[in-house]
Every structure is written in structure tokens, then in C-alpha cells.
Design goal:
With 132 residues, this protein is an all-alpha fold. The protein is built from eight helices and no strands.
């Protein structure tokens, strides 16, 4: 079995990122995000260059909740501290989504921030409960 080269991993990342961005439905974009996470898992994450990582980080701005969740988890689990460039975006999502409504990406963003090694702010839900 041939080893996957760095350039082919980055080509696959480029194609998957493009599919996430241009998918015609939320379902297509979500499936592409799952594909992207699979492409970058394990040792393949070490072959992803900085430019490709930045393009992955940009996907957390997706309008699709499912894409945001998947990409956040992918960044945390597959890249850890290498994904520190995504921290400001993840914190922004957390500020907007945390405890605002059910089924948001907030829980996955919290996991990602922890795995990246960033400080995870206390949940707005916890703050509200304590204030009652």
C-alpha cells in the first residue's frame, strides 16, 4: 500500500473544503464536512499544511449548525493546538450560541476549544442558573 503524500492530502482537503462551501443543500455541506474530518484524521493531520488548515478554520463561519459543529470537533480532535487560529471564531460562535436555544454547536465548540488548549469560558447557562 502506498503512503499518502502531503500534496495529495492537501488536494483532498481543498476539494472537501470547496464542497463544504458550495454544497447546494445543508445535507451536502454536512456530508462534505464529515468527509473533511475523515481526510484529516490520524497521521494525515500532520500532512495538512498551514494554508489548508486556515481554509478549514474558515469553515466554522458556516451558516449550517451541523457544519460548524463538525468542523469545530475536527479542528480540536484532528489538529489540537495547531488549530489555535480558529480560537477567536470559536469564541465568537460560543458567545452567540451558548444557551441561546436547543441544539446549537456550543457544546462541540467547547470540546474543540479544550482540545486546542484554549481557555474555555464558563457557560452562560451556568451563569444564569447561579444568578437565579
Amino acid at each position: 500500500m502506498q503512503a499518502v503524500t502531503q500534496s495529495s492530502v492537501n488536494e483532498q482537503v481543498y476539494e472537501a473544503v470547496t464542497l463544504v462551501r458550495i454544497g447546494s443543500s445543508s445535507n451536502e455541506r454536512t456530508i462534505a464536512a464529515m468527509l473533511l474530518c475523515g481526510i484529516t484524521s490520524g497521521d494525515a493531520s500532520k500532512q495538512v499544511d498551514d494554508r489548508s488548515l486556515v481554509s478549514i478554520e474558515g469553515l466554522v463561519d458556516s451558516k449550517d449548525e451541523s457544519v460548524r459543529s463538525l468542523v469545530a470537533l475536527c479542528l480540536g480532535r484532528n489538529f489540537g493546538p495547531r488549530a489555535k487560529g480558529a480560537v477567536p471564531r470559536l469564541l465568537k460562535i460560543l458567545a452567540q450560541e451558548d444557551c441561546g436555544r436547543a441544539h446549537t454547536s456550543a457544546a462541540d465548540v467547547r470540546v474543540a476549544l479544550k482540545e486546542i488548549g484554549a481557555e474555555v469560558p464558563p457557560s452562560k447557562c451556568e451563569s444564569r442558573r447561579r444568578g437565579q
